[in-house]
Write a structure and sequence with these properties.
CATH superfamily: Gcn5-related N-acetyltransferase (GNAT)
Number of helices: 5
CATH architecture: 3-Layer(aba) Sandwich
Mean pLDDT: 92
CATH class: Alpha Beta
Strand content: 25-35%
CATH topology: Aminopeptidase
Order of helices and strands: EHHHEEEHEHEE
Radius of gyration: 16 Å
Number of strands: 7
Structural class: alpha+beta
Low-confidence stretches: none
Amino acid sequence: MDNIKIKKADEADAAIICLLARITFSETFGMHFRDPLDIQEYFNKTFSVAKIRDSIKKDNNRYWLIYVNELPVGYSKLKLFSPSDFLKEKETCQLQKIYILRDFLGKNLGHIMVKEMLKEAFLQARQTMWLSVLKENQRAVRFYKNQDFEICGEHTFQIGKELFDFYVMKRRLSLELR
């Protein structure tokens, strides 16, 4: 049986998160890029150690790492206050990132990470959690639906020359998280 551990990340974890971010992003989106320079530019802008470290320092952000048998295999990021044009509620937070290495999918790790983020959001008195998920990533869409998120909108996002279509999903936070 696997030994699974989740921990809140701190500045010392920035390099691990950066490496996991690059690998998991490539596993999830890499096949959609026609020009490898586009993904490299995105990595350099978004997933540098300094940028991740600065993001961890911000009071509005929370990161977690998940380990299996002492090996870091995934990370998540919650933005505690993040209004959305798709939501009426004011006290909203955003599940910005949740990525797990492909070899570790299907081990219930995503559920563990979402549960930690929901607890934190509830403790911070947030009413709703929202996220964006690539429309064609049906595995992820099903996962979030199983976590009681519902589709509430759509948007696009451009990286380099590529345009991506996303669903916006939300989940109301409730007392069962206490």
